[in-house]
Structure formats: structure tokens, C-alpha cells
């Protein structure tokens, strides 16, 4: 699904643009903008966070972003840095993840 968004994240959910959020119940989501956990990657109580960071679900999200197809929660996001926008926040690489 193509979104009205024109800018593509140059490195979605990667070294320069990447973060995971662990919610109170262990649910892991790829971004703090996803307030309703619509892009659930797994659960930190049941899975290693490093496995989730390198897993199929987040890889699929990366591919969608690179092809210009953004899931609903990503359509109006301006968190990634592009030629037209700059990130509003800086987040470090998740602990234990080698980049």
C-alpha cells in the first residue's frame, strides 16, 4: 500500500534510525510513535530482544519503508531523517545489538 508520504527513510529501523520500545506488558514495538502497538514485533518476556531486532517482522517493516509503502501508523511520521526532514529525537542502538 502506497502512502501519501513522499520521503523514504534512508535506513529504516537500522543503525542510524532505530529503536525498539518495550511496553509494560513486554510487547515490543519498533517505534515510540506507535502508541497503540499496531506493529507488534513480539514479547520481551518470551523472546530475546536481539532476535526481535533481527527478525522477520522488523525486516518486513524495513522493506516496506524502503519501497515507499508505509503501514498506517508510519504515514504521517517525521521521526526519520531524510533530505526534507530531520529527526526530532536521537535514540541509541538497543543494548546488546551489534551494528
From TrEMBL:
What InterPro entries would the database entry show? 4Fe4S-binding_SPASM_dom, Aldolase_TIM, rSAM_sf
Pfam families per UniProt: SPASM (PF13186)
Where in this chain does the record put each 4Fe4S-binding SPASM domain? Answer: 18-78
Identify this protein by name.
4Fe4S-binding SPASM domain-containing protein
Question: Where is the organism placed in the taxonomic lineage, from the top?
Answer: unclassified sequences, metagenomes, ecological metagenomes
Amino acid at each position: 500500500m502506497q502512502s501519501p508520504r513522499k520521503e523514504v527513510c534512508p535506513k529504516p529501523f537500522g543503525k542510524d534510525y532505530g529503536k525498539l520500545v518495550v511496553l509494560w506488558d513486554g510487547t515490543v514495538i519498533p517505534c515510540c510513535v506507535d502508541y497503540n502497538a499496531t506493529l507488534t514485533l513480539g514479547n520481551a518476556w518470551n523472546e530475546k530482544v536481539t532476535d526481535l531486532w533481527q527478525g522477520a517482522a522488523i525486516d518486513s517493516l524495513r522493506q516496506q519503508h524502503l519501497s515507499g509503502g508505509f503501514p498506517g501508523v508510519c504515514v504521517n511520521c517525521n521521526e526519520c531523517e531524510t533530505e526534507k526532514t530531520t529527526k526530532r529525537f536521537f535514540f541509541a542502538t538497543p543494548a546488546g545489538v551489534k551494528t
